[in-house]
Structures are given as C-alpha cells and as structure tokens.
Amino acid sequence: xxxxxxxxxxxxxxxxxxxxxxxxxxxxxxxxxxxxxxxxxxxxxxxxxxxxxxxxxxxxxxxxxxxxxxxxxxxxxxxxxxxxxxxxxxxxxxxxxxxxxxxxxxxxxxxxxxxxxxxxxxxxxxxxxxxxxxxxxxxxxxxxxxxxxxxxxxxxxxxxxxxxxxxxxxxxxxxxxxxxxxxxxxxxxxxxxxxxxxxxxxxxxxxxxxxxxxxxxxxxxxxxxxxxxxxxxxxxx
Length: 237
Prior knowledge:
It is built from six helices and nine strands. By secondary structure, the protein is of the alpha+beta class.
C-alpha cells in the first residue's frame, strides 16, 4: 500500500487544476486568486498536502510535483512506470517510517526528562502539594460545596497547557463549561478533581504517567508529556 502521501498525490492528480499555479523567477508564485470552487478545492488539497509533508519533514520539489500533475492531466506519458512508482514509494515509506520512529523515541525521552526535571523543582515551590501518585496541585481558591467521587458527573471550567504555556484545550476560551464523568478522564484529572469541593479552583501539574503516557494526544500533546490544568469545580451533578 502506498504511503499516505501517495494517496494525497492521487487525489491531487484527479482534482487539482495546475493552471492555477504560475511560475515566476523559477519558483511557484504563491499569490494566486481563488475565483471558482475548483480553485478553492485545488488550494485546499495543496494546503493539506503541504501540511502533511511539513509535518513529516519531507521537502519535495514543487516544480517537479506540478510538472508531473500537469503531464498526467494533459494525457502525456509518465516518466515512471507503475512498477517503478510502486518501488520508489515502498522504499520511501520504509525510510520515512524509520525516521519517524527515531524522532518519536527522541521526543519520548526528551519529554520524559523535561517533565521529571520540572516536577522535581516545582514541588519545592510554596503552596505546591504532591500526592503519592505524583500528581502536584496548588489551591487557588477553596470551595465549600459537595465533594465528588470517582463516579461523579461534574461541571467544570478548565484551561489546559503544556509546560511551555501552549494551550491545547480550554473551556474558558470557548466560554462554555464542560460536563463529564470522572471515570471518563485521565487519571490525573480524576484524582485531582476528587480533592476539590464545589466552588474550588485548583492548579494541577500532571505527570505523563497520569496523563496521556507514551502515546500522547497528537497532534498537540506529545508522548510522555507533563501537562498543566487550572480547574474550577462548578457543580457536582
């Protein structure tokens, strides 16, 4: 089976309109006008393909890509046979997967080390408490209402970030509280919210073992990432 890039190229060959691309000084001119629906379709496919290639750190020659697409759409003969394309894509896929696995392993190790170092320093700060599981938390505001159990349905406002401050999820930014069961979330959330009473607001630092572990939550939360949440418990259902 061809790698996903081959599938994107296939759809590109069927749907793209090469005439929307012009060349200037030997480079593809990125200042194009989207006058029709097909122009927008072509642009959307290009964005998706470019995003995937950039994510995988694959730098294809845009002129060769455009030339190949134009060749096929004009009905001219391909420079490569089907067998040759199969062979080159199979070899490319194998090489790319090896590089991806290597990058993934390095990211796992890096995130693990970063999280452990951060938590070791963070636990020394005034007001930060650490539970036996390794969850760290700070009370921003105590509550006076009901306390949830592991099976409780809760209504909360929250703001989740990576250690570098990048936001990956926030009910506060959406302006809409969230409701869910504490048996449906990551371990750090379930344990942390059970420490709270209605009306409370806590900050949690959740180690990877209590968060998304080695798999992470792509594309924002990497493998073995330590994450941060500010949580306000609005109601225990």
